[in-house]
């Protein structure tokens, strides 16, 4: 086996199969046919001289040799991203477009202030924003459809994932939204456990449902879900009407006359916001500038 046998395009297909799980899903993601995916991987196995796939029921799975190959390939992919970053710096300097995928509350709280700052300081850098939740954002990032993803650390790939470089941005406190006149509206730093007997409003599934349940369970109780809603407008409207209370990230809190946002005390939960880029691409000038602007926006909150 020689280094020239390592075909980057075919290695990228193998990595996509590892991430997607099936030949069909890999083909859809790469805009290829399943037979073309299989043929490319067969050719790669022949070039490398090792079996890469083995039958597993009606599917295939990667062999130990394939995982070994990919461990080394990740370093190659990261080095190519760094090469692209240096070429971009050479060709474009302080100009370029950065495509950002971000979850809904991060857009007004972090992305918009960052874009405003960039327009003033680096007008040659354009930012294109796409709203996406964590799972979709990382799929877009991995596929090369966006250059930067904003998500919550709890729903992001681990820091050990070699495909991505993660940048911590913000620890966003969770406050409790109370209807005006609630007995705890004037309390200084109440504990979350004091709200165990309340009616709670949160989504029936998804990240915010998980965050609310986990925070309450960490405080020693299971929240009684009185109403289910996913959007903050609907949640806060129900709080205002006295239908229940809700945990609300400070980034998402919006002024509403009949709602009092109460900062919790020592057991106050937080959610951690992170940015991620493909490993090696953080050195690209435009991406680096956007990361700096996001850090500044987070520091000002």
Q: How is this structure best summarized?
A:
This protein is of the alpha/beta class and 301 residues long. It is 42% helix and 22% strand.
What labels would you give this structure?
globular, 301 residues, two-stranded antiparallel ribbon, seven-stranded mixed β-sheet, single chain, alpha/beta
Explained architecture:
Helices cover about 40% and strands about 20% of the residues. It is α/β, with parallel strands linked by helices and about 300 residues long. Strands 3, 4, 5, 6, 9, 10 and 11 form a seven-stranded mixed β-sheet that branches. Strands 1-2 form a two-stranded antiparallel sheet. The radius of gyration is 23 Å and the shape is globular. The N and C termini lie far apart (about 55 Å). The model has no long low-confidence stretch (mean pLDDT about 90).
Q: Profile the largest sheet.
A: 7 strands, mixed
Give the rounded overall mean pLDDT: 88
Gyration radius over CA: 23 Å
Distinct helical segment count: 9
**Fraction of residues in H or I helices:** 40-55%
Q: What proportion of the residues form beta strands (DSSP E)?
A: 15-25%
Oligomer: single chain
Terminal CA distance reads 54 Å
Number of strands: 11
Gross morphology is: globular
What structural class results from the helix and strand content? alpha/beta
User: Unreliable segments (pLDDT under 50, ≥5 consecutive)?
Assistant: none
């Amino acid at each position: 086996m020689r280094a020239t046998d390592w075909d980057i395009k075919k290695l990228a297909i193998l990595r996509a199969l590892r991430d997607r799980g099936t030949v069909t899903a890999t083909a859809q993601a790469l805009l290829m046919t399943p037979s073309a995916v299989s043929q490319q991987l067969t050719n790669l196995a022949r070039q490398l001289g090792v079996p890469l796939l083995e039958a597993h029921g009606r599917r295939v799975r990667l062999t130990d040799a394939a995982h070994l190959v990919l461990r080394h390939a990740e370093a190659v992919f990261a080095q190519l991203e760094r090469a692209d970053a240096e070429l971009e710096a050479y060709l474009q300097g302080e100009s370029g477009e950065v495509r950002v995928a971000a979850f809904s509350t991060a857009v007004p709280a972090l992305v918009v202030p960052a874009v405003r700052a960039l327009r003033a300081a680096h007008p040659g850098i354009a930012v294109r924003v796409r709203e996406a939740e964590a799972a979709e954002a990382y799929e877009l990032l991995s596929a090369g459809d966006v250059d930067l993803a904003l998500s919550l650390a709890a729903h992001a790939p681990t820091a050990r994932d070699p495909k991505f470089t993660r940048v911590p941005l913000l620890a966003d406190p969770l406050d409790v939204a109370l209807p005006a006149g609630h007995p705890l509206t004037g309390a200084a730093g109440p504990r979350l456990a004091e709200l165990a007997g309340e009616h709670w409003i949160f989504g029936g599934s998804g990240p915010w449902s998980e965050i609310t349940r986990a925070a309450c369970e960490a405080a020693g109780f299971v929240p009684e879900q009185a109403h289910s809603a996913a959007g903050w407008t609907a949640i806060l409207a129900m709080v205002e009407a006295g239908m229940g209370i809700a945990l609300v990230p400070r980034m998402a809190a919006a002024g509403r006359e009949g709602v009092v946002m109460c900062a919790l005390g020592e057991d106050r939960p937080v959610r951690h916001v992170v940015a991620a880029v493909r490993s090696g691409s953080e050195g690209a000038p435009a991406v680096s500038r956007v990361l700096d602007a996001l850090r500044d926006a987070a520091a000002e909150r």
